[in-house]
Amino acid sequence: MWQSVGLTLLVIVATLVCALLFMLFGWYVVWQLFLSKFKFLRELVGDAGTPQAETQPSETKSERTASVPTRNRPRTARQRVASPDSTL
Asked: Where is this region: Disordered (predicted)?
């Protein structure tokens, strides 16, 4: 009789452990493939690692406008006069 009670408890505990391991593995896979991309969720979990896109410094607006080729931007009168490459 005690053997059947012990066996029943062992089966229940083993089932709970297997279910917990399956849930943890599923969470890990979903985190790696999808959820880690959201900054809000990373902050909630307290994840110190950041994706590749955030480790690179972001451009400020002035840097983005400075990288635009000058031929595409309209020149002011002062820039047209002071420009050394003009062919006047």
From this structure: 49-88
Rounded-to-integer distance, Cα 21 and Cα 15, Å: 10
Q: Where is pLDDT greater, at 28 or 23?
A: 23
How far out from the chain centre does Cα 29 lie?
A: 15
Query: What is the rounded distance in angstroms from the CA atom of residue 88 to the CA atom of residue 81?
Result: 10
Say if CB 76 and CB 82 are below 8 A apart.
Answer: no
Query: Would residue 43 count as lying in a domain?
Result: yes
pLDDT in tens, 3-27: 899 999 999 999 999 999 999 999 8
35 falls within a domain: yes
- Segments forming the whole domain that contains residue 36: 24-49
For 47-86, the pLDDT digits (tens) are: 766 554 454 555 555 555 555 555 666 666 666 665 566 5
User: What one-character DSSP code corresponds to residue 34?
Assistant: T
